[in-house]
């Protein structure tokens, strides 16, 4: 007998129509992602919290994503990326509320192997934008960039760029993104490079780059700064 494998999106539709077994299947299929996000936050500095509590919060966030995801979002965001945001935010808020150890930054991985990423993230956030006019300018620029991405990039390319450059969450490493999409790091690198090439070749990029050139703000710097205090 042939086994029919359903996508996350198909299972979400079933769950939203009252099929509780669909939720069990969603949790089973995506428990690996919840575990990885919880592991990202767990360290000596969060040891006042049980790891199982983080997993539980992650699952709650995932179930909320299942309830709130609109199938029309698939044109903009795959369910797995949407769920990642909910898992991440639920665990983040739980630690902020319940952690009794010394204060740590929850915006960056703290494991040894991620030291370089930690340093880069701290540096990139040290120059927080305080000028309201500049913030509004970047907000408008981000909307423009999203429109260009919708026009020139595939869904996978857009999601990888947003995760890599920290739109709505922290900046994620290539390896972390590869884990989420269950693919190789080299494949993520290739997709990211292809996405950037498409944007660089767009008329929008050429216009913005030329307009901002005298201020020495390159496209990559603009892209990195777009996440300050601005949500999609």
Order of helices and strands: HHHHHHHHHHH
Q: Summarize the amount of helix as a percent range.
A: 55-70%
Radius of gyration, in angstroms, nearest whole number: 19 Å
How large is the count of helical segments? 11
Main pleated-sheet profile: none
Strand residues, percent? under 5%
Estimate the global geometry from the Cα principal axes.
globular
Number of discrete domains: 2
- Unreliable stretches, pLDDT < 50, 5 or more residues? 102-130, 213-220, 225-232
Q: What is the end-to-end distance?
A: 44 Å
Overall description:
- The protein is an all-alpha fold and 232 residues long.
- It folds into 2 domains: 8-104, Four Helix Bundle (Hemerythrin (Met), subunit A), CATH 1.20.120.1810; 124-225, no CATH class.
- It has 11 helices and no strands.
Tell me briefly what this model is.
By secondary structure, this protein is mostly helical.
Walk me through the topology:
Elements: H1 8-16, H2 20-41, H3 51-68, H4 79-98, H5 115-125, H6 132-152, H7 155-164, H8 174-181, H9 185-200, H10 203-212, H11 219-225
């Amino acid at each position: 007998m042939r086994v029919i494998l359903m996508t996350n999106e198909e299972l979400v539709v079933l769950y939203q129509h009252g099929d509780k077994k669909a939720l069990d299947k969603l949790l089973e299929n995506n428990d690996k992602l919840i575990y990885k996000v919880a592991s990202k936050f767990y360290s000596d500095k969060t040891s006042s919290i049980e790891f199982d509590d983080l997993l539980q919060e992650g699952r709650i966030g995932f179930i909320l994503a299942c309830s709130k995801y609109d199938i029309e979002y698939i044109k903009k965001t795959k369910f797995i990326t949407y769920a990642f945001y909910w898992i991440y935010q639920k665990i983040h808020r739980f630690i902020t509320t319940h952690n009794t150890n010394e204060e740590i930054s929850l915006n960056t991985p703290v494991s040894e192997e991620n030291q370089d990423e930690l340093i880069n993230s701290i540096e990139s956030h040290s120059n927080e934008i305080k000028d309201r006019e500049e913030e509004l300018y970047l907000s408008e620029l981000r909307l423009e960039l999203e429109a260009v991405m919708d026009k020139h990039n595939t869904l996978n390319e857009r999601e990888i760029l947003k995760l890599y450059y920290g739109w709505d969450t922290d900046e994620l490493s290539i390896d972390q993104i590869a884990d989420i999409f269950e693919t190789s790091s080299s494949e993520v690198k290739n997709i990211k490079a292809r996405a950037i090439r498409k944007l660089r070749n767009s008329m929008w990029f050429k216009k913005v780059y030329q307009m901002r050139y005298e201020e020495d703000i390159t496209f990559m710097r603009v892209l990195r700064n777009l996440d300050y205090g601005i949500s999609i």
